Amino acid sequence: MRRAALPVLIAIALAVGCTRAHYRKSADRAAYPIVADREALGPGYGIGRRQLEPQPGSRLADPFNPDHPPKPPDDRAAGALMDHPYKFHGSRWWGKDGHTDLIEPVGWEAALAPDDRGTVHLNQDKSAEVALLNSREYQTALEDVYLSALSLTLNRFEFDLRWFGRNATTFNHAGLPEPNGSSTLTSNSDLGFNRNFAAGGQVLVDFANSIVYTSTGDNPQVRSNLLFSLTQPLLRNFGRKVRLEGLTQSERDVLYAVRDFARFRKSFYVSVAVQSGGYLDLLLAVQTLRNSEANLKRQEETYRLYAELFRGGRASVVEVDQFYQSFQGARQDVLNTRVALEGAKDQFKLVLGLPPRLPIELDVAPLDPFVLTDPKLEQLRDDLEAFQRARLQELDAPPSVEVLRRVFAALRGIAKNGPNAVASAGADLDAFGRQLDHPARPTDDPEQRARDRATYTALKTALTEEAADLEKATARIERDAAGVAEETRKAAWEASVEGAKLFLTALDGVIAVQTQARIYRIELPEVSVSQGPALAFAKENRLDLQNRLGQATDAWRKVTVAANALRGGVDVVASANLTTDPERNQPLRFSSELSTYTVGLQFDGPLNRVAERNAYRLSLITYQRAKRSVVELSDRIEFQIRQDIRELERTRASFAIARQQVLSAARQYENSRLNLLGPRDRRTANDSTTLALIQALSSLQAARNALAANFVLFEQRRLQLLLDLEELQLDDRGFPTNAAPRSSDRPGPGAPAPAPRAGP
């Protein structure tokens, strides 16, 4: 009985097998090197992180044992069906690994480094980093690469030695109870392997052992068989072309998957950092809100001024109502823009893999070029306008001498900032001048450069004049302040109003110079593209086109495989069965007298090949479709790149137009303000000044929005061109190595550097 027990124990041990962790790690050891091998096959095939499990700081990380995860929270109604399927009690062992109420790990937010208020601060790089760590889409795409490699391991295993070991032990009792009946214990064991060959052959080696015990007490019968079997096709299913097709396709599919993911990584970065719905799009929404808020501020200040002018009889009720309506429209615009920005933020959080409830704050430093006026100058103008409104409230009752002296002291305090305002505008104007001194670029319009030079000269003259006017206004304020007396109260009050108006008018001129200079300093990066070399570069390097070419070859190869199935079947079969004598009870002593040998041919005539015929015809059509698919993608790549170049050129032209529109709208606004604040005899009730001012404010906001939109759109299209050319390359972290503008040959303080070549 001991001999029978041994194979049973071995069979039980083999049936239990290894641990779950062993098989998981074994799969990883087989799959990861395959992916690494594919990455090394060509430039640009890198996929960065290959490790399937998310990093510990990720929201996607699983803190539990991956091989024995606890039972997650279940839906209540579905859980009842798990506990009582049909009329049975469910298994009591579902919870043997524990229970958890968690789907995502606790404390994953700490990896985002939020501030004390729980707000996560994001810039362009941090956004990409967060997305790479938490994006569900990215994790799924990486898993697809792993699964393609895992599938290949099974195809490879088909051509390795495949061992098997089996045991069947049975007890049989027949007849009456002993001693009249009989009982038999039988133990059958098999140990062997089979192997497939590249040319289509198959070999099987099987060592079979049988032990039989009976209750009669006789010696056990032991018999062994050593079976060899070989099958080799000669026509159908013969040859490496046919037999290795599945393995070949699987090997190539992993390469395609790696290329697809390598391109996906680039698209993923661009979508997170630049494209519509990405970080740069959010900055555009922020700038749009800033423009709306600036418009609202101007609308409110001008409306308050109209209200005071109305009290003094210098504005009609119609004009006040007109501007009140414009003011309310500006308020509504800010509300709408703010809601749109918050919605865009929440959508962006979903792209990053973050919950919408998580507060984020964007780094708006890239928007600095669109701050068209020094905040200190804006504050100076706000102080002057507040001073002016306060004086208009005193229209019918000039204040006392003591109050007038305090009024002039406040006005003198404001006026002493005049030189700083001129210096601030002068610095921006000088930077604009240095920008004009740079060598002309191929894309520069000579006529526009001449106009820009003329504009610079005019602004230089205007700033000098406005500086002189500020000095004159300051000197007048000093003189008027010294002449304050009881008998000159009304004249002194009028002098304070006039002095503030003169200073504000000159300050508006200084701000206008600075605004125009800063507008001219906003430049688009240079993109140098030659269409012919760019197209050649793209067709040589586009990963999806490489895949499409490979897939066309796959379809071509399958024509041969399908044609092979049309042939008749002729197989050589051979076998040998070496057997021991069961009477001798010697399991390894094979007897030639009891052994058998077989060799022969098996023939299957090609009399019924309708299914194979259809498959062959399908393979021919599929191949032609695959070739057309290559041509289609090649044409589409040409279209994409040509369209990218056209859109870049159009966006550059649109940006130049928007810049001129901002300049024009800013001049219209300043001119309308001068008309509003000018002498009373220059205005009459219901004149065109109010409508002109409303129109100027609306045009200025629209032009500023268009300028920012074209600036962002150009950057989006520049990165899209890099992506379409397959020139965009990422490092192992998933960050681009060549997306930022390269060193410029036109350095200048405050001016952005030119962009890299978009093509080779």
Automatic annotation (TrEMBL):
Q: Where is this region: Disordered?
A: 45-78, 733-760
The protein's matches in SUPFAM superfamilies, at most eight in alphabetical order, are given as: Outer membrane efflux proteins (OEP)
Question: Pro residues composition bias: which ranges?
Answer: 749-760
The UniProt entry, under InterPro entries, shows: MdtP/NodT-like (IPR010131)
Task: Indicate, by first and last residue, each region the UniProt record lists as having compositional bias (Basic and acidic residues).
Answer: 68-77
Family annotation (PANTHER family): BLR4455 PROTEIN, OUTER MEMBRANE CATION EFFLUX PROTEIN
Please give the name of this protein: TolC family protein
Q: Which organism is it from?
A: Gemmata palustris
